[in-house]
Amino acid sequence: MIGLVVAGGASVAVSSVANAEPAAAPHSQQLTVEDGEQLFRANCASCHGLEAEGTENGPSLIGVGAASVDFQVMTGRMPMAFQGPQAEQRAPQFTQEQSDAMGEYIAALAPGPAVPDAEWLDASAVDAEGVARGAELFRINCAMCHNVAGAGGALTEGKWAPHLRDIAPQHVYEAMLTGPQNMPVFNDANISPEQKREIIAYLDYLDENPSVGGFDLGSLGPVSEGLFIWIIGLGGLVGVAVWLTSRPN
Amino acid sequence: MANDNERNSMSAEDQSAPSEQGVVAYDRGAAIEQSDTFQNPGLPPHRPRQTDLYPEKERRAERQVVGWFLASMLGSVLAIVAYIALPIEPGNMTSVRLNNLFLGLAIALALLGVGIGGMHWARQLMSSHEVVEERHLSRGSEKSRARAVEIFQLGDEESGFSRRTLIRNTLIGAVAILPLPAIVLFRDLAPAQDAVEAISRTMWTEGERLALDPTGTPIRADDVTVGSAFHVIPESLKDLGHDEGYLDQKALASVLLVRLPLDRLKEAPGREGWSYDGIVAYSKICTHVGCPVALYEQQTHHLLCPCHQSTFDVTEHAKVIFGPAKRPLPQLPITVDAEGYLVAQSDFTEPIGPSYWERLQHVQPEHVQAAAETETRA
Amino acid sequence: MTTTAARPARRTLTGAASNYLDERTSISTFVATLGRKVFPDHWSFMLGEVILYSFVAILLSGTFLTFFFEPSMTEVHYDGSYVPLKGIAMSAAYASALDISFDIRGGLLMRQIHHWAALLFVAAIGLHMLRVFFTGAFRKPREINWVIGFVLFILAMAEGFTGYSLPDDLLSGNGLAIINGMVKGIPIVGTWISYLFFGGLFPGHEIVPRLFVLHIMLLPAIVIAMIGVHLVLMVINKHTQFAGPGKTNDNVVGAPIMPLFAAKAGSFFFIVFGVLVLISSLFTINPIWNYGPYDPSPVSAGTQPDWYIGFADGALRLAPGLESEILGWTVSWNILIPMVVLGLFIVLVMFYPFIEQWITGDKREHHIAERPRNNPTRTGIGAAGIVFYAVMWAAASSDLIATHFRLNVFQVTWFLQASLILGPIIAYVLTKRIALGLQKKDREILLHGYESGRIVRRPGGEFIEVHEPLDEYESWKLKAYDSYEPVMVRPNAKGRITPATHLRAALTRWFFEDRISPVTPRELEAAQRHDHH
User: Fold this and answer.
1) Fewer Cβ atoms within 10 A, N terminus or C terminus of chain A?
2) Which domains does chain B have, with CATH numbers?
């Protein structure tokens, strides 16, 4: 299995990985740091360098930690599908075990943020006040890019902040901790683990409770509302007016 | 007023000819006078509807109208049922959603039932014969126009409005001046303090700690790692109640704190020592129209305003690289205190936020000099 | 006395009631004059009704909201149903808006009806104005009503903006922050106007109650009064109608108020209201709970005004980043330029009827709504105006355009900046050409009949499509329109040629140089003779 991936990756072309079948067959076999290194060399080294020291195509991964690897790999952002303004989210190309093995390899190179403990991901441990605090922290630290309802938004030069609906708590946490791509880092001094959990609890609340007013039109705010009233509202009423003023046969 | 002409006995006159009843003939301007025109064929013969021809169709339409009206009644009843049967349970969002949905649908049915039923009635069962009404010129009749002129002359004569010019002119003067007190009255819409004075200072003073928004926890320089973005308020702001101007002061004093890798940090001339170990603090209020410029890209070190897309480059002293803003974001000079917490060295050296007419009055001379030096270097 | 004459023939309840009323109000005179007044039938004539009815929906739902809304910026700690805001410090205004949404049965429905109806109100005004513009229905004697309608459009936007700002959530607060910044950009008086408006520093504690008074009292009073004048003038001038058989400049053909028009208009009210309630029960509008209370530090991606203010926000986004310091005073061109450009645009649209009348010199009354193709230059100007407005409108959502079509927001802005100047020119030229083309086609149809789709084989073997002539009734609307020609530069009564004369001549050339004359009977006869051979 691994040999296959390594052989496939020997051409060290990112695109070949993108096209390859996800080496996804679930298996319980525990992978080691060495397996992680092999996977890294085969799939990541072309951009990030053989020793993860970085090249002009990709940043150095020394010190980014296992949390960063887990986020980038398990949201499918890495390996990048194509060189663009930023890596896009898609189906992960590796299994959790493979990703963890690569994470272990990267973490072994230099210390960095580790994958969060399950304790900090459990939204059910947060009470109502905590959800409210999480919402406030979200508005102050996240909403300017990701929108108050987590619908996402535009950044400069073709980059964007992705939507945050139905994202695994682990990935939300890791994103705050590691600051993927252009997202700033929110270290524990800035937003404590408890506060990160509160933010996760708020996002969980948004996922669990669809808008009380009915369909939310993408939570995009006044623009989608304006388009809706012109096309459906006024358009529909013009249709009625045409019917009303037509002569029945 | 309107002289109803129920029968179809209209004149087959060319529409483009002006109404020439009476003595009025309006100028046609650039419109071409055509001698050779078509005759208006008059109303086409009336076409009866299905419901006019077949009694069973008429009865069906009648039943449909009644059906819609009954549906409306049902809707009204359902609305009351929904109101009672779907109460809002405190904290239960699904109950709010269901209340809104079913109450709304039932009321919509009640309204649309009347509307569609009435429409169907009008279209299918009411007389569909077209009625013709004649138009007249919009101006009043010659008689009433003459009478109006007469009345005004009489009024002028009896009052002496144009004869007694002194009375007239002083009256006009008096009424013209009358609104002036209103302008004064509006002064107390705002406190007595001078506006320019009030908006040109913030809470930042020497030694004021930089604290996290909204908790007010002071920030240690060590905690600000490269790539971080901290949303900052003055530490003493958290002691201010909402009724004591918390939001007003926050609107002036909000700051964004980031740490640049030292090789990316370019200190502006005259601002050496305003940063601490690569940590820089900039006002978060856009110099365009005052939205919070809070979108920090940690790789490009660009700051983007989500309202009008003004983009500032933090590595270049927050100068504008795109968008409608003109001036860089004001920088807050910072350092650390004995305990390692970040503190302000002073207030901003220029007013924060959007430009205003008197802005330069409160720009400190050092700042002007520094800005000039930056200009010449660039 | 007229008691015996006024008494109805049969003593029914309605008869008795009518008699009672008339003896005290002479309402019969009113009914006699207006009862059988005629309204022409066309779908586009119903747009004004959509406006009126959505306004009624706004008034009704708005009254309900005022019973519960607390226009105060006093600090409270939220203690309502919505968990993610529990215990958060906010203004009483925002807390009461949340209570309307979460703790009062039907409150959310009313809020959504109010807001959707407001969006529909302004949208319908826009479409109604376009209808009036493109059919030339603003021409004499309706110029004043155009101006009144246009002022109503401005007032509707003011109503919308003051309402948008009342909930005191993050979205509305950021809207006010932008207004604050814009007002401060006004030379000389800006700083003070902002200071007085907000009652001191922004955001202060006064703005919500002040906007509330404007929103529920002053502005609606003016709107209602102006709607009244607008409708009275419409009754006096009588409605325009499209050219058609039997329809002339001297008559109105259509349905009498009693009963047909009243039934249709009344039913349409219920339909408009019903559609609004339906939309409000199914679709969220302005979920204020997502935004949180206003706080000057946070902001949401995708912060936009409601659609009708979008053009102004877009103009701000497209403006160049210019500012000058003149003699120690700051002049914010990045704010002044969009304000002046929008001001000029508004003034031009508002006074267009007078400008066009000055150019044509046509002082006659016009009651036939023109087909847009029959006035190609005006139609082109209208299209240019639409594009100009639409580009600014699109600019207000440049960030959403960028994220949804995976574009670079800077490039979207540059593209829109170019479009703001080039777009209207292209739209003008294209639309004018299309209108002239359609006029040509009308001529063809009149002279040679329409293409019937029936192919026949000639004895000689060739295939031709049979052209059928239109009947007299169908063809009338193609024949009946006014044509204009450029005026010559002629000396006036004093024997002088003024610059205004030259200007007017030039403008008439621009308007009427390219024109397709209506078919004359002689031409038609000639064409028919030709076709028969």
Assistant:
1) C
2) 50-124 (no CATH), 196-377 (2.102.10.10)
